Amino acid sequence: MLLDAVLQALAPRDGAVYVDATFGAGGYSAALLEAAQCRVLGIDRDPEARSRGDILAARHPGRLTIIEGRFGDMERLVAPASAGPIAGVAFDLGVSSMQLDRPERGFSFRADGPLDMRMGQEGESAADLVARLSEAELAALIRELGEERYARRVARAIVAARFEAPIRRTAQLAEIVRAAIPGHEPGLDPATRTFQALRIAVNDELGELDRGLAAAERLLMPSGRLAVVAFHSLEDARVKHFLRQRGGMGAGASRHLPPGAATPRPSFSLLTRRAIRPSADEIARNPRARSARLRGAERTAAPPWPPFAGTGVAGGLSGRPGAEQ
Fold first, then answer.
1. How confident is the model at residue 179 (pLDDT cuts 50, 70, 90)?
2. 265 vs 288: CA distance, rounded Å
3. Residues 80, 66: Cα–Cα separation, whole Å
4. pLDDT higher for 291 or 152?
């Protein structure tokens, strides 16, 4: 998504090292390797990414290293692979097309599969959450992470359905959600927001984003570039907050500091004041790009901000309660 704009933001150059923090299908990595005689470290928590990376690495001997893990652990993961400075970090957030298009991964409500949604192989699945959480906890999760105005109705319907039989399939959950939501928003399946909420929760995507942004800040060399593509408002709000705060434009940033502590010097300079959006041509070629937003920044020579300064939206979840009827 927004490949040309991401390359422009990163400005790849010969001899430099870049981190593709969300390797996926390898699109950003391939573009970087073609654009300059650079090295790329590709990170992905999905074990299946390694086989895709091996094919790309064979075309660029010695220049691509695939690392399995979470990008929130970026510093630890890249240390054995690169002793030199990092010139750029790219994030393409959310679920990948390969994961969505494979029913057995359990991400999509458009085809039946096990209700899994795990990007890696560890932790609770979506089926586990649906079975374990109380009605109130489900409603809060769906409202805050899915921004679903009918969250209480959906949670009530899930709890009633699981009393009759365990909810273990994507099609099963999708039908429960569709039946619980009155009316249909044009162009949006009623199950979309609930599936989004469960996926974010299963993979701790917002916490992982906070950790990944802070890790990129610590890894990037002065004049290094950061490019982040987000696809929904919760992600984009976090990225915007982080970059505005670290760019010295965040009102109230000092509330995250200990009493009497001075606000750190800006560690980033924004490349553009507004997010870059895909063109009509790109959306026509790939409808999934329609919600993509790119934000980019350049690392300054200032030290990284301390952990207590905050990395994401203050207070954690940035979802807003809806007017449920």
1. very high
2. 38
3. 12
4. 152
Residue ranges with strand state E in 36-109: 39-44, 64-68, 86-92
For residue 43, list its beta bridge partners. Answer: 67
Q: What is the mean pLDDT of residues 242-251?
A: 87
Q: CA dist 4 to 10, 16, 138, Å?
A: 10, 19, 39
- Assess whether pLDDT exceeds 50 at residue 318: no
Residue 94 vs residues 149, 232, 301: alpha-carbon distances, Å? 22, 9, 30
* Residue whose pair of structure tokens reads 């998504």 in the numeric block: 1
Q: Is the dihedral of CA 18, 212, 28, 245 positive or negative?
A: negative
Angle at 202 between CA 186 and CA 194, to 5 degrees: 20
| Cα atoms found within 13 Å of the Cα of residue 319, Cβ hemisphere only | 22
pLDDT tens for each residue of 94-134: 776 666 666 667 677 888 999 998 988 788 999 999 999 99
C-alpha torsion sign, points 149, 155, 158, 160: negative
Cβ neighbours of residue 59 under 8 Å, at least 6 residues apart? Answer: 33
Which tokens sit at 162?
């699981």
Regarding predicted confidence, which is higher, 272 or 25? 272
